[in-house]
Amino acid sequence: MVKKIIVLIGIFILLFGSIGFIIEISSYFSSSDYDIFGMVLSVIFIVAGYLVFKFGKNKDKKIDKEKNDIAKLKNKKKNKFHVKIISILGIIFSITNIVIALLIIFSGGVFISSLFGGSESGWGILGFGISFIGILILAYSVLKLTGYIKLFKFKHTGYVLVMIVEIFTAASGVILIFSGYWILFILPFIWSLFVIIYLYRKKTFFRKNI
């Protein structure tokens, strides 16, 4: 409101000085009556009006710039908050995956022990297969955990790791869901899809701030 009043005052003074200047010029050409004081006063009003007008416009730009800077700062803080929430949830899911992987490895170990207990060798071979799957899940989960921890610290390596892991998870999820295991993999698939879309949309933020 103040900036608009300043601009209007500047315009009014500028117009007042311009009208006075036009009157003085017209008077000079019509009667050769030259009033130096009136001419100088008109010029002073024109200059003063222009300066006041310019001051109001500059203040307007300054306020707009400050508002824009505040909006950018708020957006940056909001993005960082969202990244931290996603990272914390990702860390929790990764730890859960690690626990599941360890249980699978342990189960495989139980079957492998049957080789040394005089049981059928088929159970032991199955145990090796289960343990191998558990080790793969463990390696994947540790990589995922590392990515989310680095993402929580706003490191670019975390952004890259999480994107790679979640793209792999989403691709695997599509295959497993269409294979009939949608009950087990639908939630991880939705989470991975959400993270991929969010990180992709905020890639500019990560380039500038991570």
Automatic annotation (TrEMBL):
This is Uncharacterized protein. The chain crosses the membrane at residues 7-30, 36-53, 85-116, 122-145, 157-175, 181-200. It comes from the Bacteria. Keywords: Membrane, Transmembrane, Transmembrane helix.
